[in-house]
Write a structure and sequence with these properties.
The protein is an all-alpha fold. Helix content is 60%, strand content 0%. The structure holds heme C.
Length: 96
């Protein structure tokens, strides 16, 4: 709860859309991305995503979706983010 309040305050201070950020965070957590990429994209089993350019993250998710970037895990995971690519990318880009 405290963390949620801090996140919202940080996001508001940075001038991003709070609603969009929150749903990107929810999507990231609900789909289990954190299980490999760590809390808030801090890394772990899979590469760190925190602080990457949002446009780069969106491009990678689309590449995993259309198969132009091949990774067994991400080719299965990326389609689940369909329609939420930008929100998830904005959330991760703002984590550093
Ligand atoms: C089971 C583990 C696992 C899960 C769950 C997972 N990923 Fe990944 N992800 C990986 C691995 C491994 C790579 C590196 C693939 C490669 O080497 O090309 C990767 C790569 C990526 C990249 C590219 C990073 C870069 O630096 O180019 C993005 C973006 C990404 N994942 C986003 C996500 C999102 C968003 C989710 C949740 C929908 C997710 N991943 C869930 C394992 C996972």
């Amino acid at each position: 709860m405290v963390k949620t309040i801090l996140t919202v305050a940080t996001v508001a201070a940075l001038g991003f859309s709070t609603a969009s950020m929150a749903s990107g965070e929810d999507t990231y957590n609900n789909l289990g991305c954190a299980g490999c990429h760590g809390t808030n994209g801090s890394g772990g089993f899979a590469p760190e995503l925190a602080g990457l350019e949002a446009s780069y993250i969106v491009a990678q998710l689309e590449a995993f979706q259309d198969g132009s970037r091949v990774d067994g895990t991400m080719n299965a995971m990326a389609p689940m983010v369909e329609g939420m690519e930008q929100e998830v990318a904005d959330f991760l880009a703002a984590q550093k």
